[in-house]
Amino acid sequence: MDNAYLNMELLRFTTAGSVDDGKSTLIGRLLYDSKSIFEDQLDQVENSSKKRGLDHTDLALLTDGLRDEREQGITIDVAYRYFATPKRKFIIADTPGHIQYTRNMVTGASTANLALILIDARHGVVEQTCRHSFIASLLQIPHLVVCVNKMDLVDYSEEAFEKIKSEYESFAAKLDVQDIRFIPISALKGDNVVNKSENMSWYEGSTLLYTLENIHIASDQNHIDCRFPVQTVIRPKQDEYHDFRGYAGRVAGGVFKKGDEVAVLPSGFTSRIQGIHTMTGEVEEAFAPMSVTMTLEDDIDVGRGDMIVRAHNRPDVSQEVDIMLCWFNQRGPMPRAKFTLMHASNEVKAMISNVQYKLDINTLHRNEEETEIKMNDILRVSVRTTKPLMKDSYRKNRLTGSVILVDDSTNETVAAGMII
Amino acid sequence: MSKYNLTHLKELESEAIYVIREVFAQFEKPGILFSGGKDSIVVTHLARKAFWPARIPFPLVHIDTGHNFPETLEFRNNLAEEIGAELVVPLVQDSIDKGRVREETGKDASRNWLQITTLLDAIEENGFDALMGGARRDEEKARAKERFFSHRDDFGQWDPKNQRPELWNIFNGKKNFGEHFRVFPISNWTEMDVWQYILAENIAIPSLYIAHERDVIRRGGTWLPNSEHIKLREGEEVVRKKIRFRTLGDITITGGDESDADTLEKIVAEVAAARQTERGNRADDKRSETSMEDRKKEGYF
Predict the structure, then answer these.
(1) CATH number for the domain running over B8-194+289-298
(2) Backbone φ and ψ of A350, nearest 5°
(3) Which of A121, A350, B164, B265: CA 20 to 30 A from A386?
(4) ipTM score
């Protein structure tokens, strides 16, 4: 057996869409063509489709596994699907596209390297296209791949494709996305999904699968600003490791090397990295998203919630923070309500002190008059915390720039936010 | 591949270790639900990595239905001893003897549903507030929507429509007294990832996964192992076949496939070529279209 699997990378991407835009067909094709659907799964889906009186095989039934979803024929949650090619393993966060599912789209987008935006070639850029693209930009997904689908229904016309492309580009000028690509496809017929289309010789770009396999993702992580949120302290009780005091965590940014001068926040004490440990031995350097255990040269007080950073490159430490907030809960916050704010490995009490504006996610219009917070709203707010946060802007680092709010009375996650 | 990019297995490993450390940090009394299957073996291996050089700070909790493969029990005992982990083994037979549950009757009777009660009782008696399991989202459609940190109410029930959103790598493990969490560190792994990882890390697994000669019975489209718990039906006969198991559950409900894959390399190749899902031979999943969801809502693994 060859060892190619020891060289595969992982790409996480998100899709959003409604019943008719061909999203299920596209995902079905990616899974089917990469042999990720099994025969018994397909049989089961075919049987279920028949039972429901459908004349086609509804691939959504593959993952719309919850009883309510199957009965109502809708996706009500983020569904994760998996497939792999010899080059990469893919995790798809498949989310419903309607406005009432904004929170699911935000959830799916939070971990994605890439967003797949589907446009129906017959309809061009519609409200939903803008909404998905905006959420992708808000959540700082580094790559957007815009698939103009159902090209077979517009005679594979280059003109139709170019028109949609320029329509989208003029809208996307308002967004904060660096890398946007366009691919004309037919998910149903298979054009430019896995195989190059014979019907669109005018298109010289790559197929969707080739793009997914080759898009450069190594620089999606921040490898400049060193951030190591401490999850827990490891103190073995065995004699041979009597003096071992290791700080366990997952690198959130930068490259840490043995011997580096570091500072521990919020205390500000400095020391040097004595060693970076894993069960298979010490490593010379650790970078995001590696999980490692660090030891320091000096015996200083470090615990969960602290952050180890480079002495000369520190995050902002503050109790006042501006956040783009997405409200998830059916109930809006009570006036002056207090929350637990979770940020990296840290937890503090927090209060929303001011709503600056509410954003219309279809038009990007900022409404400063409306300040009532409702489910699926996206708002810019000021938050005050009881203890300092060691924070970066979300733009700089998605892991040290993100927070969630937890309602102390219900323990529910009621909102997620991106630090500005 | 660039110097500062992890392979897919390393990234999955790092994610799982992060999740396991969060469990340790956020809960008072966590444990690992250990079935003796490859997935819980991988979770245990990851837990060792997460706390090395300290010992694994969780007990291995094995719900013993009394219908085990003997190989599974032997493997479990050896592993616990080797890594110095405490073993907690609640018995389904005890739940039956105490009258907490009644043994199923009928031709497809199994102890699959029964172990839910044993598990929930064990959680209460031991005060576990988080149990980690090896369930993966690619295994079964009800699991595709499971969270890493999955909240259970004080009846141990799962409410799939009211799950907490999970964003980035922030996990909310807050709960009221009496409630607990199920945590799935390898949620994002596929069957293939698990096997590739076992191969890459050279992790010991029960011999049942490797092709071997065994007395079996043809039933329900699969080769069911012959055991003291099985009654032959009309027209059935015990034959000897070279088989291996893709998943391990109770000996009464786990079917094997004919296979010549007697090394890890051959198993990975076989998994790559497989056209049937791994749980296709599990009678417990075949009771209805949503049998996994129904069991999970009640408190199943």
Answers:
(1) 3.40.50.620
(2) -145, 160
(3) B164
(4) 0.93
